[in-house]
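Quick start: read one record
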Amino acid sequence: MRTRLLALAVLLLLAGCSSGGTRDDGRITLRFQSLAWQEESVEANQRLVKEWNASHPDVRVEYVQGSWDSVHDQLLTAFEGGEAPDIIHDASDDLADFAYGGYLADLSGLLPARLKADIPQRSWETTTFGDGVYGVPFLQEPRVLIANATWLRKSGVRIPTPGKPWSWAGFRRITERLSGPGKYGVAWPLKEPVSATLNLSLSAGGQLFHRGPDGKVTVRFQAGDQVVPRTVHDQANTDRSASPTTLGSGGSDTLPGFFAGRYAMVPLGFSYRQQIVQQAPKGFDWQVLPAPAGAGGLTQGVSPQTLSIAEDCPHKKEAAEFLDFFLRPPNMVRLALGDWMLPTGTEALKDPALHRTKDGWATGTALAGHLSPAPAQSVRGYPEWKDKVATPALQEYYSGAIGIAELRRRLEEDGNLVLARYQR
């Protein structure tokens, strides 16, 4: 009896294991955890999986719905428990610890030449750690200004274009001009302030993270890094041209006020256009504008969505073949349209569907060549630095609770103590 119970327990354990394997009939099964969440995006992902399965009867891909909420902790638990999916959807700024920790497969020798050549080197840099490549960057989105077109037109301000954007100083003056009783020129949704601040700071010549000859990273909060934080702070606390109540909000939280005419502009990720199309009142006239530019021009940091293969996957070659299929140019266009984002692939970016003026597609596509790896891309310990140091410090600065000197001290002194633990 005890022997039979033990055997049953082993069978149940094997049944619960989420890694891919080979069935008794010889067919390989790969588990693909997707983080797609918008209806169009989920449909595009699931349809591509079905198309693969229909044409590859010996290598079946099982679609698993994941969530962006706490994905880092969820994946870490799965890796340590030996239950990680074979093919992993994530973002490039979440990969460093997994790559250095040995949880992800090095794709350098697995990916076909076509896919390697189609994606620009600047995008591959977001998934390169040391000498290895640990993910395929496939979708990206610039941060743009979503504007009330009627409001801007009536105000008479110059409408910026990718060829002639606003400066950061000009942006501040314009938001002050657009403001009035009960109305604000801009609403900054900065519940998660770190990524937005660091990525936009590249346009002002910011860098923040500096890697020395010994490979160790230190934080230096210099003049270029301060342009964007100072702009937001002064808009909210000095000019009163930025709504103070949205500083702790997420992007979606600002949309009702935007539609109601309380804010002239909202800086958002490019994909938020889908929500605006779905939720905007009938007749609401809106447009997409490029983010302000500074010493670095229109450059801004991005952390592309990525597809990786688990190191424990027993069928890496087949998993890489699925990635090649999944990310063929026509398929990459389908994924981009489903997520309202931009593909990284140069062939996919040429598709006419991504160059329409409708819904601001053309403005976003014009910014694609200015997108660079996010400053924190390869920094080990970044998640802890962000959560324990940078997020609370920036939130207090933007609310006016601390000044720029204290913000600098926290980011540098407190932040470098955190990063040092990961670089010994």
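The first strand starts at residue 21 and ends at 22.
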